[in-house]
Amino acid sequence: MKKEQVVYLEYLSEFGAYGVRKDVISELKAKGIVAKILLPEEVKKNDASDKPTLGFLLGQDKSENGVEYYSISKSYMQAIMNTGVNVQFLDYDNAYAQMRNCDGAILPGGSFNNPEEFYIDGKKLGDYVGKRYFAYRTVIEEAYKKQKPLLGICGGAQMIGALLGNMKMYRNLKEEIPHPAVHNPKADTDVRVHRIKLLKGTPIFKIMGISEDENYVIINSRHNQSMVHDVLQDYVKGTPKIKMKIYAISDSDGIPEMWGNDEAGILCIQGHPEDLVSDSKMQNLYNYIATKASEYKMRRKVKSLPKCNKESKVR
User: Fold this and answer.
1) Which CA distances in Å does 144 have to 72, 177, 216?
2) pLDDT per residue over 39-96, tens digit each?
3) Nearest to 70 by CA among 99, 35, 42, 45
4) What structural domains and CATH numbers belong to the chain?
5) For residue 121, with 0-12 CB atoms within 10 Å meaning exposed, 13-18 middle and 19 or more buried, which class applies?
6) For the CA atoms of the chain, what is the radius of gyration?
């Protein structure tokens, strides 16, 4: 087992986020030490020693003077802390080792290149797939192997859908979808939220804590790629590792907005509910992964208990 060293996130006023310098993590890695990245002590609310631990794969920021950071926005931080769980942050060099201590994981959105086979257009643009993609893949594969629950947001949702569900993607919504909704607002005058339709007979109503009479909810989004329409997924060859069910679609253009597999503890959200967690329905999407992580932790605890020997029969 590799050595670990605790590293605390710091507040980065330049980005309005919490983070840690990448070079600090790299220097530890070079010494054979895995960084155990945790919340700063002053941010922790309560002792959550009896709670599950969620891994959160950090994003990245670069300062004006060129310093690179692993980071998490305040909105993500608040949504996770509201669940009451422990959280350990994952970086791109140590994600495999760090996942060992986690009962589930959250994969946030982010901008990075995907493999060409993810897309339905068949183009070969030769885009380089970098370290960030491989970190996402590592977390997803480790969670799948150990049957740990996953919550994917935006780019993280797309990665889970593609790698585990064999779902294909649109590369550019503006070019491939006639009259798409504004999924990626560019200016303050753009509509930053849009309506999505919740599909009957799916777990999303229970997950969000609402009645099935509530057919629509409002969500915000910041993406220019998406999973292809459900009807097109039927033409994709290959067997998924985990069958994904579409839970919600965009009301205006029908693209998938939520999908998952409740039995496997997987929930994927194309939008950004962490920006709307004052609405209990949106916070419940984060509470879902906390509940599933608690269930996983309990199953693991039961499996670790010593088995009782059978009593000898009395003759």
Assistant:
1) 24, 32, 31
2) 887 666 656 678 999 999 999 999 999 999 999 999 999 999 999 999 999 999 999 9
3) 35
4) 3-304 (3.40.50.880)
5) middle
6) 20
